[in-house]
Amino acid sequence: MKIGFIGLGNMGAPMAANLAKAGHEVFGYDTAEVSVEGVTQVCEASQATIDMDAVITMLPDGRILKSVYEQIVPLGKPGALFLDCSTVDMLSSKSAHQQAAEAGLLSVDAPVSGGMGGAIAGTLTFMVGSSAEAFEQVKPLLDIMGKRVVHCGEGGAGQAAKICNNMLLGISMIGTCEAFALGEKLGLDAERLFEVMSTSSGSCWSVNTYCPVPGVGPSSPADNGYKPGFAAELMLKDLRLSQNAAEQVDASTPMGLNATRIYEKFVEREGLGKDFSAMLLALAASTRGQSND
Ligand code: NAD
């Protein structure tokens, strides 16, 4: 296939490289003029759109996605596949689908989980929102870039699933950090507490796979000075998307709201540029009076 790839950042560059490695002809565009092995670099978004069988976007947010779509959708080849893998708000995602449908294009939202490591290794998880027809067409491309592909429903359903999952992740990481910080103050050894929680009803991904305590559990960013991994500000972005989505549908998400506030404070004070699991340091250093303010 001839594929245009717009947004060659931390995630987009390795994803585009994997498509090229699999034998596709890939044309990449990024405002930052990035060059990617196997990918033909072009100077305009239009050159990554006109005549392409598929156009993939991997952009920072919904505002940028909207402005890029306004530019490229009218240039799409009739019947071409427009695949957005960015994490964006529900309204932007739905409006991207609508624009594409009105122009006679097949559209898919497929945000990812798995981070840069997954993008490089081609082991991402894709959460897909699209018609059945578009899903059938996009599946072979997603199989190259990822190892798990879940068709969550119609347009926007991929973003919805991503937002729900990451809201839960933010909440569970704070809970995990609280439990370890409390355990320490109660005089517990972190290794023993890990042994208990990881095999009991407290077990979850944040404890078992991504333990925030250095030297405990499988290797994680905590063992590397909390270098991301998954940066605290990206977690905050996703938590804000969850609150924005919850407002739109009048859903009650008290823990999601609290997690958003806690990550807001953390990013503002000390968390910027650190992995989101560094929340443990903030909680361990604060007292009951401080954390309740
Ligand atoms: P990034 O900032 O590294 O990359 C975004 C790229 O888009 C940059 O290279 C930037 O120059 C480019 N860009 C910005 N405006 C543009 C425009 N108008 N036209 C063309 N290119 C433009 O971000 P990333 O880490 O690659 O993340 C991309 C998306 O994936 C985000 O929505 C993010 O939330 C999501 N995501 C990231 C991770 C992660 O671990 N990094 C994990 C899951 C999902």
TrEMBL record:
Pfam families in UniProt: NAD_binding_11, NAD_binding_2
Catalytic activity as recorded in UniProt: 3-hydroxy-2-methylpropanoate + NAD(+) = 2-methyl-3-oxopropanoate + NADH + H(+)
Domain of life: Bacteria
EC number, UniProt record: 1.1.1.31
Keywords of the record: Branched-chain amino acid catabolism, NAD, Oxidoreductase
PROSITE patterns: 3_HYDROXYISOBUT_DH
Biological or metabolic pathway of the protein: Amino-acid degradation; L-valine degradation
GO MF annotations in UniProt: 3-hydroxyisobutyrate dehydrogenase activity; NAD binding; NADP binding
Catalytic residues identified in the record: K162
Enzyme class, broadest EC rank: oxidoreductase
Domain 6-phosphogluconate dehydrogenase NADP-binding: 2-153
Residue span(s) of domain 3-hydroxyisobutyrate dehydrogenase-like NAD-binding: 156-281
GO terms (BP aspect): L-valine catabolic process
Family matches, as InterPro entries: 3-OH-isobutyrate_DH-rel_CS, 6-PGluconate_DH-like_C_sf, 6PGD_dom2, 6PGDH_NADP-bd, HIBADH, HIBADH-like_NADP-bd, HIBADH-related, NAD(P)-bd_dom_sf
PANTHER family found in the cross-reference section: 3-HYDROXYISOBUTYRATE DEHYDROGENASE, MITOCHONDRIAL (PTHR22981:SF7), 3-HYDROXYISOBUTYRATE DEHYDROGENASE-RELATED (PTHR22981)
Name of the protein: 3-hydroxyisobutyrate dehydrogenase
Organism, as annotated: Granulosicoccus antarcticus IMCC3135
Originating gene: mmsB_1
